[in-house]
Write the structure tokens for this entry.
Amino acid sequence: MKIKLGVIFGGESVEHEVSVISAVQAMESIDEERYDIIPIYISKERIWYTGAMLRDMDVYKNFDDLKRYAKEVVLTKKGDKYYLQSTKGMFRKDVTDIDIAFPIVHGNNVEDGSIQGYLESTGIPYVGSHVLGAALGQDKVLMKQVFESNDIPVVPYTWFYDYEYEENNSSILDKISKLKYPVVVKPATLGSSVGITYVKNDSDIKDAIKEAIKYDNKIVVEKAVSNLVEVNCSVLGNYKHQECSALEEVLSDNELLTYADKYIGGSKGKLKGRMNSSKGMASTSRIIPARIDKKVEEKIKDISTRAFKALNLSGVCRIDFLIDGKTKDVYINEPNTIPGSLAFYLWEPVGKGYKELLSDMINIAIKDYKEKHKKTYSFDTNILSNFNGLKGSKGKLKR
Ligand SMILES: Nc1ncnc2c1ncn2[C@@H]1O[C@H](COP(=O)(O)OP(=O)(O)O)[C@@H](O)[C@H]1O
Ligand SMILES: [Mg+2]
């Protein structure tokens, strides 16, 4: 019997479109002899849809058609099984059951642990990192704090909340100048370079902070790495086992990799692509393998597996690095717990095709789920039958 795989994508995030591309691309490569693919699209209005047509990129060009032909659904549990139920009409009809969910979502409100929390509380097995790892992977401040405590090198940084800046910007601006310009200002929990500014000197810092505050209430300012070389490494595994992909070097025409560099294809390098060619992250200008010496490569692979373990990640992750090309200093930049295009193009050079990568990810999820359910998470007690209401001392809960 085939496993019914619910591929979840879209969502209310600045990376909505990127997620659609990543998911449509993955659905083309999933092994259909082993898995029945059930596309589940979350619109920007957070409504869930299903229907075979959602596998076709063209559907997303006309949202009215999509709404007309796809079915609005919710995920629910009945007995031991999970169903997508239609929300239209008098009675909720089961559209299909699903065995396992595969979130291919990027960014806030989905990739950051939100979708994982929803799936976790429903009880359905799902592919990829779990709530905590996904949440840490989205917060550029908390991830650094975890990395620092695991001796993983991060760039010098400072962070603050928007209201702190609005109340007393001079002490924050002081801290920033201590980092020494140039710096990079970022909203702490966004992705795809949205709201990020490279700041050369203090005359532009206020505008950059203003821009970042548009997107987030938590802001991080980092010292800019000079002679920047950007190298990424993908890790596949779980808390026990990890393997590393080939390393890529990503190229940009700008001081920082922009949204356009990532998804619309830069002008440097040979691998150019366009958003509408469904290449997603696979369209960034890149060189594989990265042009770095063996020592740096080993360092990056070592840090990648340590970071993967420190955040307790699962499935596939892409870990991004910033390297000073002159001093060869290596800093971890960020993990992408659901990377664009699931970083499949980094696995092909080490002999793992996309189909195999996807099957590996699903197998890891099933293994993780089985292992987790061997542990004791709840036990039967008669606490509620002895509970005498909220009044009086008997009703007080001792924890
Ligand atoms: N400290 C830094 N020094 C130099 N360039 C940086 C630094 N941080 C980020 N960048 C540039 O900005 C890009 C986007 O930053 P990143 O932290 O990866 O944000 P996002 O989550 O949006 O991808 C990076 O790919 C890199 O080109
Ligand atoms: Mg990045």
